[in-house]
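Need a sequence for this fold. Nothing fancy.
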């Protein structure tokens, strides 16, 4: 991978459209350490196959951390991401991997704190009115309380890994506005409500990143035109109920990993 001076890397991050309020990140060096943190979107749920040693955390070699690390072998990857992780889980079970020797940290978390799975299930099985109420309620949470919780976590990460570049990868919109969903279809209204909730999660993560002084990677443009139930979906639908509305292999490769590599390496 190319070695960047601090000034060049800072310019590249700004050009790539990242939200940044941090001091200039340290230059990568030979034999550098990369720690990946987060929930199922970070661990690669939906990409498969999973590393048997990761158990219920369901870490896939196709998650964005492993794909980027494979292209940058000078980095030693420690992947602590875990399906189902909340902010508290990341703090209690994953941050111990960080140290002053850590050079790069990536993270996706917050969806479980905002009850994404429960909201999605309600939208799939209940009325349009129920879906609207649920998504509006949790969207308010994502834009308010969640911001402080995420900012506190990001600050903890910086304190444990003071020399690391911290990249927070956000959540994309999940649903195509048109097309038919197999098993259980979704009305146009429900799709709008759920995508609005995804926007709230992205905006909350972005606000928290600015507050804590880390870099936010907005994934919504990268996934545009590839929502679930559309003709070129990068998501699992209800035909894979265990990973519904998580990216599929194309989503992790052409979505997350491609965006990561476009930013750095």
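Here you go.
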């Amino acid at each position: 991978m190319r070695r960047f001076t601090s000034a060049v890397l800072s310019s590249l991050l700004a050009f790539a459209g990242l939200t940044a309020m941090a001091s200039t990140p340290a230059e990568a060096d030979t034999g550098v350490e990369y720690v990946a943190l987060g929930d199922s979107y970070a661990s690669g749920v939906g990409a498969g196959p999973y590393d048997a040693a990761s158990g219920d955390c369901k870490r896939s070699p196709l998650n964005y951390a492993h794909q980027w690390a494979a292209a940058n072998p000078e980095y030693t990857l420690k992947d602590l991401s875990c399906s189902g992780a909340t902010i508290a889980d990341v703090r209690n079970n994953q941050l111990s991997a960080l140290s002053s020797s850590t050079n790069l940290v990536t993270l996706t978390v917050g969806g479980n704190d905002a009850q994404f799975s429960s909201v999605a299930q309600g939208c799939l099985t209940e009325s349009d009115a129920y879906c609207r109420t649920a998504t509006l309620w949790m969207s308010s949470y994502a834009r308010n309380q969640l911001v402080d919780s995420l900012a506190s976590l990001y600050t903890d990460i910086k304190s444990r890994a003071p020399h690391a570049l911290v990249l927070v990868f956000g959540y994309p919109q999940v649903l195509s506005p048109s097309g038919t969903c197999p098993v259980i279809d979704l009305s146009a209204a429900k799709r709008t409500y759920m995508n609005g909730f995804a926007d709230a999660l992205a905006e909350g993560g972005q606000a928290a990143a600015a507050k804590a002084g880390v870099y936010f990677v907005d994934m919504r443009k990268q996934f545009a035109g590839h929502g679930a139930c559309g003709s070129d979906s990068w998501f699992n639908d209800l035909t894979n109920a265990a990973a519904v509305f998580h990216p599929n292999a194309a989503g992790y490769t052409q979505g997350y990993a491609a965006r990561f590599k476009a930013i750095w390496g």
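For context: The two ends are 6 Å apart (CA to CA).
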